[in-house]
DNA sequence: GCTCTATCACCAGACGGG
DNA sequence: CCCCGTCC
DNA sequence: ACATGGTGATAGAG
């Protein structure tokens, strides 16, 4: 889940920590990408007309493979060496979020059934997208494809975002590319947005540098994490959160000194903080570039 | 008229032929 | 360039 | 992912 308004907060308060970049400036660089996020997008959009998707002779969905292959080719042609990071089991704190998604999909399926029964094309289009779920099979299909074309695959022990931020911190990739601002909270030193956007969409690659953000906003990393948790979980704006952190230094001190804000019951901020500060990641993975399998 | 700003509908993969 | 059909 | 965020058209203010 994203942190609402973090981009704007950075634009306003750390403008020199972010810069527009050209795709060419990443020529030859290794860049980590969240695979599951990509697969989800492909399943939603690639070759879809109503409930119809791209399928093979056996009737199995191939939209994710189609999307993954061509996107990867684009990156490679731009001289970028992608490293795809796959999600492992989610942390407990995300369980309720996942339960929410599950029930949304269930509701989507019901509404889809109604739409199909009444032949409402518009509704079929709308609700079929809500039933999309990335399965283990989709993930395995894509891992196999990537390995066959010699693109490194990393299997995260838990959250992919955490893993690729760790890869970046360890210098094993130059940067991470995502649309989810959580990557910054996980401390990926260089974070790119809009890397995959086609040039036709006329949106430049945006590069964020953590050290500059911290310097310019006058925060340490722990405070930046607290800021993200405050403005993410908690219903206050980014600017207010920033002021509170500057004033009090940490969530604990804010809660001690301020009671005019409504605190959610059992707000698990310290668990959230732990997920960002000490996420479950693997360091043995060394994304090797394999030679393409000619078959 | 002109530029700057505010709103709002609209869109979300990639390719290639015509 | 855009438009639109195709990818499986 | 009925999310969110960026875009481009349009309208109003100075």
Question: Can you put this structure into words, describing what you see?
Answer:
This protein is α/β, with parallel strands linked by helices. It has a domain at 7-87 and 133-215: Rossmann fold (3-Layer(aba) Sandwich), CATH 3.40.50. 48% of the residues lie in helices and 10% in strands. It has helices at 6-13, 35-45, 63-77, 95-117, 121-130, 136-148, 160-169, 182-185, 210-217, 221-233, 238-248, 251-257, 269-277; strands at 18-21, 30-34, 81-86, 153-155, 175-177, 190-193, 205-209. Strands 1-7-6-5-2-3-4 form a seven-stranded mixed beta sheet, sandwiched between helices. Helix 3 packs parallel to helix 6 (136-148) and helix 4 (95-117) runs antiparallel to helix 5. The longest helix has 23 residues, at 95-117. It is globular, with a radius of gyration of 21 Å. The chain starts with 5 loop residues before the first helix and ends in an 18-residue tail after the last helix. The structure holds three DNA strands.
Short structural summary:
Belongs to the XPG/RAD2 endonuclease family. FEN1 subfamily. The protein has 295 residues and is of the alpha/beta class. Helix content is 48%, strand content 10%.
